[in-house]
Inverse folding.
């Protein structure tokens, strides 16, 4: 995902409620290609309305949130956002890529979804309901969304780690006019 | 197949959250892993930016 984003002329940074020292360890441990900025008291997440007030139960923390910001040249405006209601929710990389390609004005858009082997499938109704409630999670739900929204399946290829089959990669394309 | 929809918490918990889409992104200055100061303004010089908020240890 990171290199796809870089290839589109954009960048990723993460803001974490931790110190630079713990972030340095985390980045090394997970071998992250992007930078981790330290927002120790989640003050910046408050400014972005991506804050979870957890008092008095515990420490207040950032929600998982993703913001797509236009370049400085275009005023640094927020063009797309997703703030997760719980810590289970994630933005599928394909969705983020779609929004970035739309932002930079690509007419022919290509996104990829990897379905890990062993992932559960759901009924169309369940997928539809999940999407209607604003929830974008699960690789099968994302596959459902892309098909529903008229993306054309261009390729499917198996994924391996070493000799072990790990899932299927689906490549979708659409033209935006 | 399992009905996932019922097991998913909806966005109601953050229903009163105001969207920031269309607004200028709030400026910040924060330290990266090496302790160097980084500003949003500077990050946006290179092009569009994906800003990802994570919780740390809790």
């Amino acid at each position: 995902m990171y290199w796809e984003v870089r290839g589109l002329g954009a960048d990723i940074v993460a803001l974490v409620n931790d110190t630079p020292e713990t972030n340095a360890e985390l980045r090394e441990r997970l071998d992250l290609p992007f930078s981790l900025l330290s927002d120790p008291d989640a003050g910046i997440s408050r400014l972005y309305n991506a804050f979870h007030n957890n008092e008095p139960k515990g420490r207040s923390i950032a929600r998982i949130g993703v913001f797509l910001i236009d370049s400085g040249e275009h005023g640094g405006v927020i063009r797309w956002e997703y703030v997760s209601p719980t810590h289970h929710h994630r933005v599928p990389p394909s969705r983020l890529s779609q929004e970035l390609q739309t932002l930079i004005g690509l007419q022919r858009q290509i996104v990829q979804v990897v379905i890990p082997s062993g992932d559960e499938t759901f009924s169309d109704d369940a997928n539809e309901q999940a999407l209607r409630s604003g929830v974008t999670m699960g690789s099968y739900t994302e596959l459902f969304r892309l098909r529903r929204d008229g993306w054309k399946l261009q390729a499917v290829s198996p994924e391996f780690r070493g000799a072990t089959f790990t899932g299927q990669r689906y490549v979708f394309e659409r033209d935006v006019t | 197949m399992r009905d996932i929809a019922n097991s998913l918490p909806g966005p109601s918990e953050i229903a009163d959250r105001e969207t920031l889409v269309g607004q200028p992104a709030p400026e910040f200055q924060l330290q990266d892993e090496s302790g160097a100061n980084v500003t949003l303004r500077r990050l946006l010089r290179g092009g569009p930016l994906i800003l990802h908020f994570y919780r740390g240890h809790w």
The two ends of chain A are 25 Å apart (CA to CA). Chain A touches chain B through 72 residues (CB under 8 Å). The mean pLDDT of chain A is 87. Residues 38 and 71 of chain A are 22 Å apart (CA to CA).
